[in-house]
Amino acid sequence: MRRTAAVLAGKATAALSRMTRRGGGTTLPGDVARAIDPDVLRKLAKDLSHGSVVITGTNGKTTTARLISWLLEGAGHRIVTNRAGANLIFGATAAALDSAGADGRLRADWGVFEIDEASLKFAIDEIEPKVVIVLNLFRDQLDRYGELESIAKKIEAALTTMPDGGRALLNADDPRVAEIGLNQPNPPLWFGLDDTSVASRELPHAADARTCPRCGSSLVFEAVYVGHDGLYSCPNGDFARPVPELTATNIELGGFEYLAMDIGGTRFELQLGGLYNAYNVLAAYAAGRTLGLEPAYMAERLREFRSAFGRQERLEFRGRNLNLVLSKNPAGFNETLRTAVDLAHGNSFLIALNDRKADGTDVSWIWDVDFEQLRGKSHVVLPGGTRAHDLAVRLKYAGVDAMKPETDPGKALDVLVKATPEGETAHLLCTYTAMLDLRAELVRRGWAKPYWET
Amino acid sequence: MANHKKRFTVGWLYPDLMNIYGDRGNILTLLKRAEWRDFEARLIELKRGTTRHMDEVDVFFFGGGQDREQALVYEDLIEHKQPPLERAVATGAVVLAVCGGYQLLGHHYTTAEGERFPGIGLIDVTTEAGKRRFIGDVVVDTDIIDLTPATLVGFENHSGRTFLGPGAIPLGKVRMGFGNNGSDGLEGCRQGGVVGTYLHGSLLPKNPHLADHLIRTALRRRGVDDLSRLDDSVELAAHDWILERAQRRQPARARPPQQSHSTPASIAEKRAP
Q1: Residue B53 has pLDDT above 60, yes or no
Q2: Is the peptide bond prior to B202 cis by the omega test (within 30 degrees of 0)?
Q3: Which CATH code fits A2-302?
Q4: Partner-chain contact B25 A367, CB within 8 Å
Q5: What's the pTM value of the predicted model, to 2 decimals?
Q6: Chain B partners of A393 at a C-beta cutoff of 8 Å?
Q7: Which residues of A fall within a CB distance of 8 Å from B135?
Q8: What pLDDT sits at residue A433?
Q9: B146 found inside a domain
Q10: 3-state SS assignment for residue A153
Q11: Within its chain, how far is the Cα of A376 from the centroid?
Q12: B23: domain CATH number?
């Protein structure tokens, strides 16, 4: 049987990849299996006894997938999920292969897959999810994905192919996501934040979707939560934020350690940081409700949630606390900076920028990040990564007194630790492969597990 | 006291819509480098519907946008901005236009379907749509007199192919990358006080010598003859890093061009949706 051969070949590839230490075998097995049987994921997805949840959007996919998996696992379900941010269709295939038995069958209840914006069409076609979540659409890696508009159109077209009984859960606060949802034949379930006390009134420079899709006028924002996500309307009355069915209110933010909010009358408290995570929690709640989980159970379970690899990870190292945060585009970066500076009162930073394919080879986006937030507020700011020199220029023009750029990850760690007093926290804000580099350096020194084990 | 300071004014055309490739870096570089020399630097945002203070601008910046945004600024550009922009350039103001802004300042842009959109014809260039997108680092050898170093570095991401008419001269020759059209080895254009280019990255932060060239040219009409020197070691280290990497990669790129159909498709290419 072709499918069994594909599954076995994929599994063998994964084992080989791990053995040769080429990485976690998080996507290559998918390539191999799909070459043997292009329908392997479609077949494996049909084995899932309950169905699948697919999460897409620029920021928050990994954390939201982890939250949903955590909720479903706690309710006694067996989960298949593409854990390590391998979010192309190959990564989803590899995850399914990993959980399949020697007979080529998948024994699990739910699939929870984070899917790259551009791959959503294939995921909906092959996985036939029960729930698709669209979190947000920010500018990200223009060299690789192209313009935001073409991504938005792809998502819009993909959602029209949802299987019968499937439900789209969309962020009403994101104007471009709202436009996608309003163009769907079946009304989506809208979610959004409803607490202007944690909002600002001004759009950051990196805001994208700020014109009315109908008349082209600039949207008026009453409140801005994250990036261009907020409470907006067209001055001519042609377009406005859809009224969300599910909202988060009474939001409380406590650095990187604490996030609380009311959803549907239930108080949620998590060990997570940043307003952006309020969206992820709300999206996970929306998925949980759609799949029949009880609010009280979800609140209880989420208290114990721990964040995903490198998304917000704390390691202790020579008496210093290292807080590793993936920061890969202006919207996300601005929020991590805001959390680190304003809420966590961070004093020590390593900002690591790489320009490999997975990071995006175009680093011009750093000029859209408000590094001005660090001005006069932090003692140690060390530019790192392959493009440390570009960061040094950015910081200079932001008026931040930065240290000499250090392109070598090992040396950067040494400099950072030396400059950070014992007992204090250093925040490591890194692009994807810059984080892998630092993580590898930490593993080499025995401080953390390799990423495919987390 | 502030009254005694000399003014330097930057006009940003459509900051809310034409800002896709980190264009704020160009604005910040112009403003800061004037401030560091004790000018009173100010920014005027030229959004749709306004022409306020356009006659006071020393350097205009016109960046790239997405197709949707570009379509939104098009009418406003022709209706409102074109006359004051032409007047400003005629009286010695400077314009830096990148990518989409560069194309819109030319005579016209022809789409793949043959549809022709007129630009404002401030520079003698025309652009036509190309199939393949040119994406990657660019190194340009420029022949602007007195520019040290004589290289410009940046990043390009465009499918338009721009060709210069006799009225425009190139910004420089491409050492690495594609430039205007990928065929004649030229990058950007200069015509009077207008500089058009496909380079972002942002362009000016890593090319402080070009930033100063623009500031100096624009301030000449205000009786400012020269600019004081600044410490550019941080900026030039970033510039040199790109040059050095280009040199390391150059041997591979110097080979005769391969036919694309003879190149085996890599897994990465197959993955592209």
Answers
A1: yes
A2: yes
A3: 3.40.1190.10
A4: yes
A5: 0.86
A6: 205-206, 234-235, 238
A7: 143, 361-362
A8: 94
A9: yes
A10: helix
A11: 30
A12: 3.40.50.880
